Amino acid sequence: MNKFMVMVTMLAVGVGVVLAADLTEVSSFAVPQLVSEINTTIGEADTRLDAVEATGVGGTLAAAKIIVGNAGGTAAAVVVSGDIGINTNGAVSITSGAVVNADINAAAAIAHTKLAPVEPGYVMVGNATSQAVAVAVSGDASISTAGVVSTVGLSTNYIVFDGTNYFTLTFTNGQLRIKQ
Predict the structure, then answer these.
(1) Contact 110, 116 (CB under 8 A)
(2) Which pLDDT score, from 0 to 100, does residue 16 have?
(3) What is the four-CA torsion angle of 71, 74, 78, 80, rounded to 10 degrees?
(4) Inside any domain, residue 170
(5) Is the residue at 49 inside a domain?
(6) Is residue 109 part of a domain?
(7) CB-CB contact of 147 with 160 (8 Å)
(8) Quick one: 43 and 78 in the same domain?
């Protein structure tokens, strides 16, 4: 490839336009056709450059800005705002406190390890304002960290009424028996 072919190829590739002409042999290529092809390529490059300049965003962009199409359909450099930020390396971060309970999908399947810790022997109970709170098991029962519930100070027999029937509950050797 001679210097002329390299120059024309670089011009064509540099502006993103591929010449339709066969440049393998300059001697067999008609000079007027070559000039026409080069003028077409330069014209297309000028059109593309005009389009880029018309957006108002030249070859530079201020740090931590992005290009966004505005309401008029023109590209504009803007600062990222709202619940995220962006740095000069393009890394996006969520603003502290931006994610709230309403933002979490009910099907998100959040791991229990991501929730606030609960003290050993405590259980989660809905309080008077329907908020889950950790409370210690108290009264005649206790719970271990393995989830085993133990009773203390219970009598061995209870009578329970469910609104229709009476049942006898009997505790014997750690087992609960129910009789109607």
Answers:
(1) no
(2) 45
(3) 60
(4) yes
(5) yes
(6) no
(7) no
(8) no
- The total number of structural domains in the chain stands at 3
Which range of residues forms the domain containing residue 137?
116-179
Residues 76 and 50 in one domain: no
C-alpha 42/C-alpha 7 separation (Å) is 13
Exposed, middle or buried, 165 (CB in 10 Å: 0-12/13-18/19+)? exposed
Q: Which two tokens stand for residue 173?
A: 């050797």
Q: Per-residue pLDDT for the chain (180 aa), expressed as one digit of tens each?
A: 444 444 444 444 444 444 444 455 555 555 566 666 766 777 676 666 666 665 555 567 788 888 888 888 877 888 888 899 888 888 999 998 898 888 888 888 888 888 888 888 888 888 899 888 899 888 877 888 888 877 776 666 777 778 888 888 777 776 777 777
pLDDT the model gives residue 15? 44
What is the CB neighbour count within 10 angstroms for residue 57?
A: 15
- Calculate the dihedral angle through the C-alpha atoms of 23, 28, 32, 36, rounding to the nearest 10 degrees: -20
Using DSSP's 3-state secondary structure scheme, residue 133 falls into: strand
Secondary structure of 30-91 in HEC code, one letter for each residue: CHHHHHHHHHHHHHHHHHHHHHHHHCCCCCCCCCCEEEEECCCCCEEEEECCCCEEECCCCC
Residue 150 phi, psi (nearest 5): -120, 150
Residue 60, in any domain of the structure? no
